[in-house]
Predict the 3D structure of the following.
Amino acid sequence: MTNLQLVFPEIFLSLSIMFLLIFGVFKKNSSKIIQNLSLVVLLVTAVITFNETVGIKEVKLFNNSIIIDYLSSLMKIVTLLATFLVLVISSNYLRTFKIFKIEYPILILSSVLGMMIMINSNDLIVFYMGLELQSLALYVLATFNRDQIKSSEAGLKYFVLSALSSGLLLYGCSLIYGFTGSTNFNVIANQLGSSEYAITFGIVFILVGLAFKISAVPFHMWAPDVYEGSPTSVTLFFTMVPKVAALTVFIRFLYVPFLNLIDQWQMILIFLSIASMLFGAIAAIGQTNLKRLVAYSSIGHVGYALAGVATGTNEGMQSSVIYIIIYIIMNLGLFSCLLMIKRENQYYEKIEDLSGLSKNHPMLALSLMIILFSLAGIPPLAGFFAKFYVFKSVIEQSMYFLAIVGLLSTVVAAFYYLRLIKIMYFDKEKEKYDTDHGLWLKFSLTFSTLLILVYFIFPSQLIDVVSRINII
Amino acid sequence: MNFPILSSLILLPTVGAFFLFFTRSNKQNNFTVKYVALFTSFVNFLLSIYLWILFDHTTSEFQFVEQRIWIEDFINYKVGVDGISILFILLTTFITPLCILSVNNSIKERLSEFLIAVLIMESFMIGVFCSLDLVIFYLFFEAGLIPMFLIIGIWGGARRVYSAFKFFLYTLLGSVLMLVAIITIYWLTGTTDVIELYSLGIETKYQNLLWLAFFSSFAVKTPMWPVHTWLPDAHVEAPTAGSVLLAAILLKMAGYGFIRFSLGLFPVASEVFTPLIYTLSVIAIIFTSFIALMQEDMKKLIAYSSVAHMGYVTLGIFTIQQQGIEGSIIQMISHGLVSAALFLCVGVVYDRMHSRLIDTYGGIVSIIPKYSVLFMLFTLAALGLPGTSGFIGEFLILMGAFKDNFLVAVIASIGVIIGAAYMLWLYKRVIFGKLINNDLKKMIDLNRSESVILTSLAIPTLFFGFYPDPLINTIEVSISDLIETYNFRLASKI
């Protein structure tokens, strides 16, 4: 008998989405209530996930198509909490653009549901279903500011390219099904060996699809345009949350069925990783729009996270998870700052708009500086440790080329982070920005800055949490 | 459990900075802000003197060792001092209060932020000199970039942005390879604890590459020719207090690193690469001395002279002779005092005339006599006149060099003459000669805080020049032990 308790979080979330949707349709002007209810739903789901599944070692449900283990529980909780923070700090922005509508939180919740299914998946079909659910919600979110041409363009671009990549991914799935006779990860793992080369084709296609979703070079083309065009609050969501789910699938897909084929996929991952790190660092130098700059920087960071996965070891995978968690915290802080650069209902996105920020808003500038130094990976801030763990696991596998290219690209990347700090601290000040940002925005900025700043005092805690992941 | 004196030394400046963080600097409380910072750094200085008194210089063991688990089964927070590191800690805690005292005229705005940066810098630098774990060392070593970047960039001169970026990126580029090496050492030996690594040793076949990775970081930081170009830029644009910190302490981190890590961990590789170091050092000594001779900007001249002086230091370290290494350490301490003083001297005239060009000055001996006397003292110390600490360092280094390699020693000795030439010529052009520029007549002599700063730098310069025993006693045993282990491990190839 299937133990339904373990999928309570997903069940609860889907029921809540349906309820909120109907509630929103029948009750006029209910966007504020829906927003608050969604926040509660996210928290409750996180709590249920924590209570029901964290202690579970490994359970497979529904004909082995869903897996509940520590990795999935942890990543689900990270996803839910990150989404909570995204939702809570985006309301001011949405109000300014008069797009504070009921659909916004509901779409975000549906996308989160899709991600949770992706994280749980132990089967190609389930995985694809989750992926499409989250993508469909994201297409709509990208166009959410529908009166702006850029936003519609972003959504359309994302839709077309994403559909293409989904097609490639499905093709890969069908190849693998054709040669192994199953879509289940464990069955696939047992059927390997006979037709290795054919399966490699399947892996390549699936990796292309996944690389697209996580915006790794050379499948990153959509990211800068979509990040720039979407409303900032959606960009914030894009840069943080889907990456968690995509990384989990990366790990699960490569480590469960195909660990024995590591010779086949390791080179691909190393290439993706190096290309992303280098390209992210170099392309960001020329950017003048902050959101585009963040897009390239996130491409770079994805490269570092993939470097950990590329090792094919438990340690490497754990270091990637640590990386993505610290990256989320840094990005949260970064976007909190972006959402604060606002004057009389207008948000500023050019890098010159940061000019002289340290004179007018010393605390904001200080936080942003700490976050940027951390993103650049300068010790003793959290970003350094994220990179340190990744490169430690990479070097332990003697992958020196990857480590050295990665570290050199941090030097290149340091340049554009420094440039932002230079603009804030060394340049002439401009007019003041608004200072009434609401409690949540200030909270999330303080929270993330402090975490980044004091992480070096308690580095073991995060490692303890992550080191319980064990899927090999 | 004894009183954790080293951790207190590291933490105290940060605590002071934390207090300053809550006081916005404006005209009224500039005074308070400055005295809070001064008080903190002075207490730190007293604490380090206390450390020196307690220090037992008859043993080469690490003392005052503190160890705490930091990341389980991986890195321990471990600090301790031996004869080699304690002098650098003293230098740091001695220079910082003087730096803070010197900000009166040069830093006009955002004083409290400036002092926060200086104090945090002090914490990191003390951390570098007493960490006994490679990762902790790297952490402090790199973290120092942040405050220095801000000091140059915010309070610097006209081309400050360029210089700050150059400083930051150059040093970062050098250091990332060291990080790869540190992780590799962990992977090879299973530990990053320096004391354990000393006893374990590192396999010979890996040593060369690891040595080069450490070298890439230290060579940039030293700075050695040809990667020294960031230094003149950084010095020229940094505010006076920043130049002082940079010259007096930051440059010493690399010299310290060479002794502690390159010699201590990779004896075989050090032996292999000694010719490389000799060549680069000799080029640095001769070549940058000639460049210094041609400078028109006083700060740039002193910056190039720093490169030349650090050339002696690296030369001395790799002689692997008792005198050579002792000389290097004394030269570093002496250079810390003297270059700090010279930058402050430039700062004094710059605050009055707003020019660092040598041409602006000339014939000021009768206008500001007190200044001229002190400036002369430091000029002579910089060129290594007997009776100043500069002499002891250079003399010991050359002695060590003559024992090891005659040709190198001869060429390096020629450098001493060129060094004397550019320093004396600088002094002549600035202080003596005809008074042409009439604006100079309005210059006033040293005020009280300036005299205090320069005098307190002059006293140890002369004292250790006549009586270097306290320094030599402190380092002697540690160095002879270092050389003994070095030779032993060289012979047994580990």
